[in-house]
Structure formats: C-alpha cells, structure tokens
Amino acid sequence: MDSLDELQQALGIQFTDISLLRKSLVHRSFLNENPGDLIDSNERLEYLGDAVIGLVVAEKLYLDHPDFDEGRMTRLRSALVRREMLARVARSINLGNYLFLGKGEDSSGGRQKTANLSCAMEAVIAAVYIDRGYAETESMVMRLLADEWEKVLNKPAVIDYKSKLQELIQSKKQRIPSYHVTGMEGPDHIKTFSVEVRLGDTVLGSGSGKNKKEAEAEAAREALEKLR
User: Fold this and answer.
1) Which residue out of 2, 17, 33, 50 is catalytically annotated?
2) What radius of gyration, in Å, describes the C-alpha atoms of the chain?
3) Which of 5, 7, 162, 192 is the least buried, fewest Cβ under 10 Å from its Cβ?
C-alpha cells in the first residue's frame, strides 16, 4: 500500500490526526481478517461523508446558480454525488492503492470496485471535515469534482434515462422493459443496490446505486448506450 503522505498530497490536505485518514480507508473485510487490529471500519465515516458532500454540492449550486429551480438543483446534485461519479474521482487520485482490504476482497479486484471506491471517497471527505473543518473540505471537494462538475453542468439537461429507454424500446418492440433487483450489499444505512433492466429474458443493462431508483437509472443509461 502506498504512503499516506502521497495521498495527502493528492488531496491537498495535511491531516492533524492521521488516524482519521487511516480509518477512512478501512474496509470491513480487513477487520474480518484482522480482528483487534483497528477499532472500526470506514462505514460510520462514510455515512457522515455522504451528508457533507451533499451539502457542499447543494450549497454551490444554490449560491452560484440563482436561476436554477429546486428540481434542476436536485437532479444535478444527484448526478454529482452518485457512486459512479465518486468512484471516478477516487480513481483519479489512485485511492484504491491506499485501501485496507481483506485478502479475499483484495484478490477479487476490490481496489477498483465502484462500491469500495465511492464509499472510501465519502469516508475520506468525512475525515477531512472532522480534522480540518468545513472550509477546507469544501475547497477539496470542489477541486476534486472540478472536471465532473463542468461535464454535468454543461449537459443540455439531466436525462431521464428510464423514460428514454422505454420510449426507444416501445417504438421498436411495442414492449416495456422491466427492472429487477439482483443484489443488495452493506448495512441498512449504506446499502448498495444492483439492478438489471430486461426485455423478456434478455438483459439490456445493469447498474448500482444507493437506492433502487438510482440503480435503475444507471441500468437504463447503460442499456441506452448499448442499444444506440
């Protein structure tokens, strides 16, 4: 695992309490295989980080875009904090290199899994918030989100992928796609849902998210990309 000094450089943050950063990187699989080594996994920090990044993004949208109505701000915030987005940000700073994983999770590609990376990214944000306060956290989040922020805000509109997919399929097949939950992971407050969208027995796309609605939208987006 790489030095946490390198991670702090990538974040642009110097921790006062480095143990907070270390805790933010601990996947529960590590504790299962190393009982007693560390006090806790990053799940509680993840819970807080989810709220912090939501506030940062919501505040930025509200202050910088007085012409945006509530509906548009809500859609943009959802696009900017969804798990796939956070995982891409995590990959951009090689966050997977720093994770504490169990051997099984590590050998199965856990350092690049979207769920692990997005959860760790939220936990890191919470660690920064506790250690350095809101102002530095806000600055870091906006710096890390800069590229994705521009992409999302420059789109003509946030796409309703489920409606687009249904319109496309009905125009060709006169049938309606169906959505099926294929898995759920994690404790109740931070579950990850996996969903497939199907036409009959054919799987058109799959996706994951913090709730079924988010996972269905991601599955529909993938299906649209494949069909087009």
Assistant:
1) 50
2) 19
3) 5
